[in-house]
Amino acid sequence: TDITALKVNQDRLMETLHQTCSWGTGKRWGSGPNDTGMSRLALSDTDKQARDWFVETTSSLGCHVKVDAMGNIFAVRPGRREGLATFAGSHLDTQPSGGRYDGILGILAGVEMLKTLKDHQAETEFPVGVVNWTNEEGARFPISMCSSGVWAGDIPLETAYNLREVGGGTATMRSELERIGYLGSIPASHKSTPMAAHFELHIEQGPLLEAEKQKIGVVHGVQAYRWFMVDVSGRDAHTGSTPLGKRADAMLLAARLITHSHRLATKHSAVASTGILSLTPGSTNTIPGHVRFTLDVRAPADSTVEAIEADLKRDFAALAAGENIQGLLDGATPSLPLEVSWRTDSVSPATLFHPDCIAAVRASAEAVTGDKSLVRDMTSGAGHDTVYASRHCPASMIFVPSKNGVSHNPEEYTSPEDCALGAQVLMQSVLRFDSM
Ligand code: GLV
Ligand code: MN
Ligand code: MN
Ligand code: MN
């Protein structure tokens, strides 16, 4: 096969994107009729629709399809010779208020590769495949890259199965896998479904490519991150009749802890963010006695994330005890002591991808764009399933520009030309690796 001669079909790719995004459109709160927003939460009915489409489509393209015990779907197209498949992989699930590109673009580009190979009756040396990883977002069941993590052996199966949906629902990952018919029979393990390599096309989700008018990011790795759940316990009391010195206001303390986490992370050139916050009892005239919030801390080096975690644990305890460290309690607010407890929900270490895969992506990107200045090296700020795939096979990623650098937002946008360019680089990277 002359790999440079094969071309993906941009119109077909974009038609498929908008067709598959009919599953989960505009379901978010407050959405209007023209909303481009997506809510295709992991293992929901709309995720099932997208999965069923993926299984049917790849089967009709001549793939053998296997589903593992985490609902990961592996579609494999035979090659001239038997052996491990080189995969294109990503995820079909979205954020509760996400866009049309995060995740599904990588899957559809893989499907477009299969269609292009079929159009040309092209044979690869070894099998090539497309994999859909379950619950990459960690939005519904709160561990990101959850099922590639189980496949890699880094997240215990039982931990994943027992995850309960965010927001107080009773469904677990296991019960939802069963309900939608994707509790597969083969073990979720790299030992059962080993891969020759894993490539992932994804939108950048940041501003760099757009700012430099560049087209393709050659991704060398992913920064480290940890997710925590922080509980702040004080005492419920009347808002009108409780003097300041007799309050243990969990919300006021939580506000200060969150501000402090942000300041401390910034000092380390890291980022800390709170995306979920709930308080009880939730009444205008009751001082909240309990607050729970998430903390997501990210930095290029594991040691930075560890240092921030240690500092925050120390400082949160001091602030809860009423010590006015760094003037953060601003002296004027006396309070009864409160308690802060932590739970670590997820740990994703800093990851470096494989030189052979990085080289395959760079060579493909330069060949496809025909202009080295349109290609840049980068590190991913967001987590991706390729992090876990890379523990057990050579792997790397391809980024395409995100308009205004925005993602996890209905405004997420990447032009059809850029989507197709990324798909072309993905296909060439897979074929290049296959013939390496
Ligand atoms: C995972 O996708 C993350 O970056 O949160
Ligand atoms: Mn994604
Ligand atoms: Mn995402
Ligand atoms: Mn992600």
From TrEMBL:
One of its GO terms (molecular function) is hydrolase activity, acting on carbon-nitrogen (but not peptide) bonds, in linear amidines. Transmembrane segments: none annotated. Keywords: Hydrolase. Residues 225-320 form the Peptidase M20 dimerisation domain. InterPro entries: Amidase_Cbmase, Bact_exopeptidase_dim_dom, Peptidase_M20, Peptidase_M20_dimer. The keyword Hydrolase applies. It holds the Pfam family M20_dimer. The keyword Hydrolase applies. Belongs to the peptidase M20A family. This is Peptidase M20 dimerisation domain-containing protein.
